Amino acid sequence: MKSITITPLKPGSVRFEEVPAPVPAPGEVLVKLLEAGICRTDVEIFEGLYGEPPAGSASLVLGHEALGRLEDGGLVVPMVRRSCGGCANCLGGSPDMCSTGNFTERGIKGLNGMLCEYIAESPAYLVPIKPEARPYAVLAEPMSVVAKGLRQAGLIQGRLAWEPKKALVLGAGPIGLLAALTLRAQGRETVVVARRPAGSLKAGIAEACGARYVSTAQTPIPDLAAKYGLFDLVFEATGSADAALDCLGAAAINGAVCLTSVTGGSSAKHVDAARLNRELVLGNRAVFGTVNANRVDFENGLAYLERINSLFPGLLQKLFTSRVPLEKAAGVFKDQAEEIKTVVEISRG
Predict the structure, then answer these.
(1) Region 161-283: CATH code
(2) Residue 171: phi, psi to the nearest 5?
(3) Integer CA distances (angstroms), 176 to 99, 237, 246, in order
(4) What distance in Å separates the CA atoms of residue 315 and residue 180, rounded to the nearest whole number?
(5) What backbone torsions phi and psi does residue 251 show, to the nearest 5 degrees?
(6) Domain limits, CATH 3.90.180.10, in the chain
(7) If 0-12 CB within 10 Å is exposed, 13-18 middle and 19+ buried, where does residue 274 land?
(8) Which pTM value belongs to this model?
(9) Residues of the chain with CATH 3.40.50.720
(10) pLDDT of residue 335
(11) What homologous superfamily is domain 2-138+318-345 in, according to CATH?
(12) Summary mean pLDDT of the chain
């Protein structure tokens, strides 16, 4: 079958090639993949920063955001992470909270991904999709990250009486914009902060759902609180370690900060550690990181997408900034800086 494959840790080794089609094991079903999304994780694997092939192989099929169809015609979204099979969280049905690090992830770590024509999968890792969700269902995986972050914020903030009225979203990539759309669909006052100037496509999407858009060129992150006040919830999705640190000062008393960026490399930054510690402690502020998602987050995320599509018709489609066939997908990884979401069209079936 056709696929987009890479040799992990070898920069630029991505290629379009034929690989053996999967044969479902007992208890698995065959999924015909229809389309897949490209995200920053795929780009970083392309750049050779990480990635791990399946055991016994030197190559990895890329792709962890996808929409597929079962042989009975039903639409599904495959989940990303698979259980380590040993820790309490995985055994309890939460591989996204794996304690050992011995999990596998489609298209990322130890398991082939979904930039290909077919996968064989256990129904336990397939989330059913309503037919009417077909136009935007490929966003289910990034939306699941948003849904998990918001769910975790609610669980953590169950320590007090907390109903966030004002939210700050940092970053206007797919996850940042989906977070802003979700928060606005919940009726929360939302400010979106990103590098792109006012008048850009990203700014327009944020403003179209009723959020305020702020460019860091006009208002740097450390100055946000002075200009717009403090925020009950801060949702960070920038990919920048500096931004993740700078945004901590924007949280209100009893506020929560959700960090979603996985930042590579290393960097040094001067911080007033005494002030940061004092504000976190005296303000009862909570800071937490979140990665991947559980099945409930995919299900909640799909419900969020349905509501957003109803409240803001056509806005989700604006996130799809380019489409390419599978045969040409090996060429998209170099040019993602200006994209929101590139969709790879695999099959029209």
Answers:
(1) 3.40.50.720
(2) 105, 140
(3) 27, 5, 17
(4) 12
(5) -80, 140
(6) 2-138+318-345
(7) exposed
(8) 0.96
(9) 161-283
(10) 83
(11) Medium-chain alcohol dehydrogenases, catalytic domain (3.90.180.10)
(12) 96
